[in-house]
Design brief:
119 residues; mainly beta; 7-stranded mixed sheet; 4-stranded antiparallel sheet
């Protein structure tokens, strides 16, 4: 059973870069036909897909966040990373990583990590 665990600082100052890691256990991030997504949920709002990375290393980003988002993977550590630059309080949210079976079936989620953007 694959498990995903998000980690990173819970508090980030405005204008800084938010960096999160999703560590995958019980399965490899190089498993064929899967890709790995980051999704967030601001307080009181719905889920927002941020982007994803495929086995090939290709990345896909939400148009609204593309200019500030970078997703990468480290196969030696079996983890996925998210970087979101120039954060504002509006980026305060619970951030989730999720595994997606092609084409678009989310079949495993991390528990999520709350990131607050505040000075």
């Amino acid at each position: 059973q694959v498990q995903l665990q998000e980690s990173g600082p819970g508090l980030v100052k405005p204008s800084q870069t938010l960096s999160l890691t999703c560590t995958v256990s019980g399965g490899s991030i190089t498993t064929k036909n899967y890709y790995w997504s980051w999704i967030r949920q601001p307080p009181g709002k719905g889920l927002e897909w941020m982007g994803a990375i495929a086995l090939s290393g290709s990345t896909y980003y939400s148009p609204s966040l593309k200019s500030r988002t970078s997703i990468s993977s480290d196969t030696s550590k079996n983890h996925i990373t998210l970087q979101l630059s120039s954060v504002t309080p509006e980026d305060t949210a619970v951030y989730y990583c999720a595994r997606t079976l092609e084409p678009n079936a989310l079949d495993a989620w991390g528990q999520g990590t709350l990131v607050t953007v505040s000075s």
